[in-house]
Amino acid sequence: MSKKKLLVMGREVIKNQAKGPVTLHISERLEKHPPPEDIRTIPRIIEEKCIMCGTCVKVCPTHCLWMEKDDKDNGMIWLLRPQCMWCGHCQTYCPKDAIHIDREPSLSVSLFSFNVRQDYEMICAKGSFKGEKAEKKLAEVIEEGAKTIKEIEEFRS
Amino acid sequence: MAEDFRSRFRVLTDGSDTPLGADHHIFIGPQHPWAEEPAHFIIHLKGERVVEANIRIGFNLRGMEKAMEARTWRQNTMLIPRACGICSAVHQNVYVRLVERLAGIEDQVSERAKLIRMFSCEAERVHSHMLWYGILAHDAGFDTLFHVTWRDREIIMDIVEDISGNRVNPALMLIGGVKRDLPKEKADKARPMINDLIKQVEYHKKVFTEETSIVNRLENVGVLTKEDAKKVTPNGPTARGSGLPYDIRKTFPYELYDDIDWNVVYYTEGDVLATTLVRLDETLESLRMLNQILDRLETASGELLQRVKPRISEGKYMTRAEAPRGEDIHYGIANGTDKPERYKIRAPSLGNIDATLKRMDGEYIADMPVILRSYDPCFSCTNRVMIINQSTGEKKIMGQDEFARRAIKAKKYNRPFF
Ligand code: SF4
Ligand code: SF4
Predict the structure, then answer these.
(1) pLDDT on residue B199
(2) Would A19 be classed as within a structural domain?
(3) Residue B204: which residues within 8 A CB-CB, separation 6 or more?
(4) Are residues A29 and A72 both part of a single domain?
(5) Nearest CA in chain B to A145
(6) Residue ranges of the domains in chain B?
(7) How far, in Å, CA of B209 to CA of B204, rounded?
(8) What SS3 state is found at B313?
(9) Partner of B217 at 20 to 30 A CA spacing, among A149, B126, B184, B335?
(10) Which of B68, B75, B149 is the best mutation test for A, with the most CBs of A within 10 A?
């Protein structure tokens, strides 16, 4: 190896020693490098704007939005969070611009965590569906999920 | 020609169709530390030299094409990028152009939307190529370069994330336009980052051409001459490394590729180093294109998204585009409803397998990792098959729940899954 190369290498080594590690701890990195302004996560519905047209449910590629309604002032939409792939289709095709995409990255708990309450979320409840009725329906859905998880647990054991 | 041809796609190996002279057989894959993805290579050796290499594909059954038939055209816009983890934007681009053509609105897409699409595709080419030559350095035993390239790759990932909201799956394109605008503030933020990256990639190129430890691993290894290349029909950078200057962006321009200033990169040597240099130069070329696109976006105008009816009228069409790995071909049949009748994806890696197997002939077994890496293998690219019960011919589409339930029953009552 030539002398010049050795010198170059030596300089690099000393420089890197002085600089310290390049890798950052995750918390440090998040501080210095926050997620971008427009990160796409799960959808949120502004209840006053929504007209219960059902477009968002129809265009959702993962079938993670569900809806129950009487008429345009009475209804609810709920979301299965682990299934949402943050694509933003519902936002694009909503005719009333009632949906905006959240910034809070909310990860699913696990693939089969059907019975975890936080996985289901009531994102829109209007009119008489508000309050108790919505709560009851949500509980029913979670119950359904619990059945599946029970079967899966049986399978695993 | 006929006697030249011996199919390299085979199941093997009871020894009945081993090539003459081979005394050892080495199996690489489907699970192997070299590969992140499943494919089964069978390498016949005489001593340390390869006599012939064969492959068996078909471990990655995903039934994506079948799944598309059950979804609407609009929903499929978000399913199709999942065909590949790295080149998602280009798959989406081919898809939306196909549907736009079928719906008859391909000339209504605005200039601005087209430029944003191109930005997404080129940014993807940059990060895909950088990922690839990083891994190549890793396979060649030069891990420092691997870390350096992957560190610099974060720059382009940040740009993509800032513009689209997602790191690797920008999913910006929609039938009739794009989802998001690329405003001036973001462009101004991206420009210095792109210029930084150009400097870094130039440095990577310097390492790849001057550092003897890596040049020795790649130079004159796995040579695919132009004549051979014409026989085994590679595409993308593999072909361009063997002196075939064929790039869909130039030969059959789509979007606005004929409007901006860029060159097709090609080398004539045909070895692994040549394909590497093709990708390095292409990265630089793409980065310069990104700058041009940002400049043009300042003045370009137009609606971002055209309204398209969910029902697509009857017809069939084929589109293609230059993916980072080669030529990506989609073919779709519409039947007048809002769902496709049939959809077919031919992704680039499949076209490159034969060429790569040809490269191996007569090489040392120790050079296998770099040669296998040379065509940027992506086996989710390679096959996409619907699951059919062979004995009964039964076809089934299952949801997640039913799948889980079936598995449970199969285990409980000890009976076959299908
Ligand atoms: S959120 Fe939008 S698309 Fe969904 S039901 Fe309400 S108005 Fe329709
Ligand atoms: S973001 Fe996509 S996956 Fe999630 S609810 Fe909206 S349409 Fe469905």
Answers:
(1) 93
(2) yes
(3) B130, B133, B145, B148, B149, B152, B280
(4) no
(5) B401
(6) 64-371, 391-418
(7) 9
(8) coil
(9) B126
(10) B75
Encode pLDDT of A29-49 as tens digits. 777 777 777 788 888 888 888
Answer yes or no: do A29 and A41 share one domain: no
Mean pLDDT for each consecutive 10-residue tract of chain B (418 residues)? Answer: 55 63 79 71 84 74 78 90 85 92 89 92 92 88 90 90 86 89 90 93 92 88 87 87 89 88 89 91 92 91 86 90 89 90 85 83 82 70 48 59 62 64
pTM tops 0.90, yes or no: no
CA–centroid distance, residue B77 to ligand 2 (Å): 12
Work out the minimum CA distance from B157 to partner chain A, whole angstroms: 11
Residue at token pair 């000339």 = B107
Nearest to A59 among B75, B165, B166 (CB): B75
Pair (A24, A42) in one structural domain: no
Structure token digits, residue B83 = 């065909």
Q: Which helix (H) or strand (E) holds B343?
A: strand B340-346
Cα-based distances in Å from B207 to A3, B146, B246: 19, 12, 27
Average pLDDT estimate for A96-125: 67
Would you say residue A157 lies in a domain? no
| Same domain as A52, residue A18 | no
Three-state SS at B1: coil
Identify the pLDDT of residue B17: 66
The answer to whether the CB atoms of A59 and B72 lie below 8 A apart is yes
Residue B92 β-bridge partners: none
Q: Looking at the structure, tell me whether residues A8 and A42 fall in a common domain.
A: no
Nearest CB to A151; choose among B78, B79, B408: B408
Contact B347, B83 (CB under 8 A): yes
- What pLDDT does B386 receive? 42
Q: How would CATH label the architecture of B64-371?
A: Orthogonal Bundle (1.10)
Q: Which amino acid is at B213?
A: S
- Chain B residues inside the 8 Å CB shell of A89: 74-75, 77-78
- Judge if A21 and A56 occupy the same domain: no
Number of domains chain A is built from: 2
**Same domain, yes or no, for A52 and A12?**
no
Task: Write the CATH number for A78.
Answer: 3.30.70.3270
In the prediction, which pLDDT does B381 show?
A: 53
Bond before A61 cis per omega within 30 degrees: no
What's the confidence (pLDDT) of residue B384? 41
Task: Please answer yes or no on whether B161 and A60 come within 8 Å at the CB atom.
Answer: no
Q: Do A19 and A50 lie in a common domain?
A: no
Mean pLDDT, residues A134-151 taken together: 77
- Which domain does A16 fall in, by range? 1-33
B183 interfaces chain A, CB cutoff of 8 Å:
no
The reply to whether B71 touches chain A by the CB within 8 Å rule is: yes
Q: Which tokens is B27 given?
A: 């199996």
Q: Which pLDDT score is estimated for B292? A: 92
Q: Flag if B75 and A36 touch (Cβ within 8 Å).
A: no
Which helix (H) or strand (E) covers residue B137, if one does? Answer: helix B111-139
- The residue of chain A with its CA nearest to that of B404 is A152
Q: Any CB–CB contact under 8 A between B162 and chain A?
A: yes
* Residue A52 Cβ contacting ligand 2 at under 6 Å: no
Lowest-confidence pick of A13-27, A61-75, B18-32: B18-32
